[in-house]
Amino acid sequence: MAVVLVPLVGGKVDAWKQWCSDLNGPRNAEITDFNSRYGLTKHVAWLAETPGGPMVIAIHEGPGSDDLMPKLGPSQEAFDLDFKARLMEFHGMDVTKPPPGPMPEQFFGLGS
């Protein structure tokens, strides 16, 4: 499982919500195919309003969750190119480059 916490670029909350609505609606077949191609069995996102601004919390589960970003980076699939463009637009996240700083480190957990 991978957990991603990223800020939303200022003024992009409504556009991000519309994109999520499209993924849940008319583009659902595309995101379902995306998840299948990358070995994801669960792919969910929440919007959290914080004192520092809006943040997105995303969870990717499945056998491909650990390799999602390294495999997505070089992909030239049409949906993947759009997905990467949206990550850049909404979060300033360039998945073609290593993330800045260390990866999150788990310090506590119970259960499975």
Give the SSE order as H and E letters.
EHHEEHH
Tally of distinct domains: 1
Shape: globular
Instruction: Report the average pLDDT across residues.
Output: 92
Whole-Å distance between the termini?
Answer: 11 Å
Helix content, binned percent: 25-40%
The main sheet comes to:
3 strands, antiparallel
Gyration radius (Cα, Å) is 14 Å
Task: Tell me the structural class.
Answer: alpha+beta
DSSP helical segment count: 4
The overall strand count is 3
Strand order of the largest sheet: 1-3-2
Strand content: 15-25%
Q: Which runs of at least 5 residues are low in confidence (pLDDT < 50)?
A: none
Can you put this structure into words, describing what you see?
- This protein is an alpha+beta fold.
- The protein has one domain.
- The chain is 37% helix and 21% strand.
- The chain has a three-stranded antiparallel sheet with strand order 1-3-2, with no helix packed on it.
- A hairpin with a 2-residue loop joins strand 2 (42-50) and strand 3 (53-61).
- The model has no long low-confidence stretch (mean pLDDT 92).
Fold blueprint:
Elements lengths: L1 E6 L5 H12 L3 H10 L4 E9 L2 E9 L6 H5 L5 H14 L21
Antiparallel strand pairs: 1-3, 2-3
What features would you highlight for this structure?
single chain; 112 residues; alpha+beta; three-stranded antiparallel sheet; 3 strands; 37% helix; 21% strand
Question: Nutshell version of this structure?
Answer:
The protein is α+β, with helices and mostly antiparallel strands. The protein contains 4 helices and 3 strands, in the order βααββαα.
